[in-house]
Amino acid sequence: MLVHFLVEISSQYETYISEVDSAVRSLIEALHKYDTNCKHKKHAFYTSKPKVHLLTYLPEDLQRFGPALNYKTKKGEQFNKHICEHLFHTNRMNTSKDICLKFGKQYMTRHIIDGGSWIGKNGLRETRGKAIAEYMQQNSDGKFHETLLGGSREFADNNGTGLTPGRILKDNTFALFRQSNGHIIIGMVLLSKVYHLYIEYPSTHAVNNNYCLALKYADDIYTPLDELKVVCLLDMHLKVGCKYVVNLNKFGSYWSFLYPFY
Predict the structure, then answer these.
(1) Using CA of residue 217, residue 196, residue 162, residue 208, what is the dihedral sign?
(2) What is the pairing mode between strands 125-126 and 174-178?
(3) What is the rounded radius of gyration, in angstroms, for the C-alpha atoms of the chain?
(4) Percent of the chain predicted with pLDDT > 90
(5) What per-residue confidence (pLDDT) applies to 84?
(6) Which pTM was predicted?
(7) How far apart are CA 175 and CA 187, in angstroms?
(8) Which of 163, 221, 150, 152 is nearest to 190 (CA)?
């Protein structure tokens, strides 16, 4: 159905709503026919799922809220990726509280630095000091926010590689790479070469805390950088001895290619 790709309806609105309703009914009828004729013992009926039922309300939703493209939630849900980045730095004993405290401290720091006020212990309203105000004025080009506060995240698709157009990978950058034969490798960039890393068999502690350790091959196996395609960048600057800490939250669906025994 093309309903998801329409930004506005400029004419024949009632016809559009009628066609959407007809398309929904046809889809549900087709799903019901498949459900009743499917012989697979473990088949779960599609027509019993809540999302299929909610489709019947789509014509009404379009009339109330406009075309579906205007109230999709995909980009908003992608913020979960950034929450997972914070989870790696907790002990996972009380994740909701830890994440709330982390974001709360960030917002309070931003509020103070940006000139916001608060009620002090003496009951009076306070704001940032003169030295902070002068420093922020001297660094008004935004570099301070970008360097120390993480900048602001663009409300855009974040399923890409993490590379901005034209960016060149610097030495000591870690990433997942795709070889010409389609294989996925994990590697470290050094002098226009990508040195392959291998994954150590996980300990119980690693399994419970969602990480693993990576090491360089003793004989320094590498591939020229220009022969590889970046899948996604990785933050692997924490080390345990000579081993790099790999945060499994970064790998997503690619992890099974590298770590089949995990």
Answers:
(1) negative
(2) unpaired
(3) 26
(4) 18
(5) 72
(6) 0.44
(7) 6
(8) 221
